[in-house]
Amino acid sequence: MSKQETVHRYIDLTQVDPLRDAAHDRPLRYDSLGRRLRDELLIILGIDLGLRANELRGLKQSMFRLSEGEVTIPGHAQKDYPNENLSPGSVTMRLDPFGHFGTIRLLRSYFNSEWYQERESDYVFPSRQSDQMTTESMRNVVEDLAVHADITVHRSDGEPADPSEFHPHALRHSLSNYMLGDSSDTENIRLMDVRNRLRHRSVSTTERVYDHFQRR
């Protein structure tokens, strides 16, 4: 791997449950079930939908249709692409398409929690002080969960990784790793499927960014 290439961090799906457990086990100064569900949901939506941190931060309850198992993310809530005059269009994504995470059940529990309802915010990830978590606070939560769970983190350059290196965008890389390399349905998953899930501008972007997963 050349020095110019970006090093990606990612986990296997076997590490998701320890992260979920950590959301409910780690000590919190301001403890509540709803807040613990929020932190668990941050992990699950990050790896289920493959969203970027800013996109996770912008999710709203009104975007979800739980009875249909879908979420629609409008163009303005997605990443703005450089050198483009047009924002990406809205996209509707199926929740938990591989059936691993119980995303819909977790969302229902969280939205019905007293802590979330007391926030009186449409944003999925509020904080105690604001309608939305900051990207820094989201990163801190993910890192804290990884360290508390002492999960095994991989690096795309093969070098050893520490749990403290795990961050929200690594959840997106973890989904790609699963779809391109670890899935038992690998033969049925095309590069275009990964491109559509991650919403890259073109499949060539997916191929370039995740070439190391395909070469394993």
Automatic annotation (TrEMBL):
GO terms for molecular function: DNA binding. Pfam families: Phage_integrase. GO terms for biological process: DNA integration; DNA recombination. It comes from the Archaea. Keywords: DNA integration, DNA recombination, DNA-binding. The keyword Transcription does not apply. Residues 6-216 form the Tyr recombinase domain. InterPro entries: DNA_brk_join_enz, Integrase-like_cat_sf, Integrase_catalytic, Tyrosine_recombinase_XerCD. This is Tyrosine-type recombinase/integrase. It comes from Halosimplex aquaticum. The lineage of its organism: Archaea, Methanobacteriati, Methanobacteriota, Stenosarchaea group, Halobacteria.
